[in-house]
Design brief:
10 strands, disordered N terminus, six-stranded antiparallel β-sheet, globular, four-stranded antiparallel β-sheet
Length: 206
């Protein structure tokens, strides 16, 4: 009887201890989520909002190291006067959303497999493939594999705010719906407008 009582008491203490740890963990996670939600949705402060400098922009290992280390749904890498480079990671079972842009888009896949639907036509895609989506064309990309579908895309001209970082597709949709992810005006100017503004000249001196 004594052994049974001791065992029961031990199990009770273990259960209470476990519940306390779970409750504490849940509370800590919830608090951390609430405290960092604004940070996750913030723009990258290291990215400029103005026209690009006339200097080299180098991104090493785009086919290997850099994409494989990314876990963000969308991150703008560079924004120019006539184009924009964006890194995307589509999670397992995820997609980029059925959409139509008013700009041209070229997507290079670096990891994973998926299905592209362009104006109603399906095409399987994999690492090493390039897909071009003309402006005004319906498109959707779905991750059909067991690992993230990773790609970098070039918009021409820019489609997003130069500082954009979206941890998830939901964050991206929310910012776009709220008008908080707009391409800057200087990225939508004509060649003649940029020349008149002194942003471009054939001398290469500024």
């Amino acid at each position: 009887m004594s052994l049974t009582k001791n065992l029961t008491a031990s199990l009770s203490r273990l259960t209470v201890s476990t519940l306390r740890r779970q409750a504490s963990s849940t509370f800590t996670f919830s608090t951390r989520s609430l405290c960092t939600s604004s940070v996750l949705r913030a723009k990258d402060p290291n990215m400029s909002t103005g026209p690009p400098k006339h200097e080299m922009q180098y991104f090493p290992n785009m086919i290997n190291a850099m994409p494989s280390e990314s876990a963000e749904f969308r991150r703008v890498l560079w924004t120019g006067l006539y184009s924009q480079v964006v890194l995307m990671t589509v999670p397992v079972g995820g997609d980029i959303g059925d959409e139509v842009h008013t700009v041209d888009q070229a997507l290079t896949f670096t990891s994973g497999v998926g299905k592209a639907t362009i104006n109603g036509k399906d095409q399987d895609v994999k690492a090493g493939d390039l897909m071009v989506v003309p402006a005004g064309t319906q498109h959707q990309f779905v991750n059909t594999g067991p690992t993230p579908l990773i790609l970098y895309t070039i918009y021409s001209p820019a489609e997003h705010d130069p500082r954009t970082v979206h941890k998830t597709k939901e964050e991206g949709d929310e910012e776009e719906d709220a008008g908080k992810d707009e391409a800057p005006k200087w990225s939508r100017q004509s060649q003649s407008e940029n020349e008149k503004a002194g942003l471009v000249n054939t001398s290469g001196k500024y």
